[in-house]
Amino acid sequence: MTDRKLLALARAAAHRAYAPYSRFQVGAALLASDGSVFTACNVENSSYGLAMCAERVAVGKAVSEGKRSFAAIAVVALGKRGKRVRPCGACRQVLAEFGAKIRVICEDAEFEAGELLPERFRLK
Ligand code: THU
Predict the structure, then answer these.
(1) Mean pLDDT score of the chain, rounded to an integer?
(2) DSSP symbols for 60-85
């Protein structure tokens, strides 16, 4: 799986976003270490605070299918406002839970999950 392909999968997923309130469409494609890919989009709600980010939907899909080891996640947002999108703070915490080394692939940059939230909460 190439970074380009993972970004393309994330972009396709962004088109499935349910974002009637923000109109900000986000897609994610999470690559598990075994090569399987889980795509996701943001899912909003009329009770705004219940919005679910694409990245966390992707992690939820993967973990609930038995995957816990991840190599990379691509994140894409559509439109002018989506340029240079980065995972939000909550998503950074959730990604780092599964490994500081997970590559976070954005269209214009790449990071490691751990570097995106260096002083994150840890239980131990
Ligand atoms: N959103 C994501 O899906 N991922 C992020 O990393 C940032 C924000 C969504 C949540 C909400 O549906 C919309 O983008 C606007 O905040």
Answers:
(1) 97
(2) HHHHHTT---EEEEEEEE-SGGGTT-
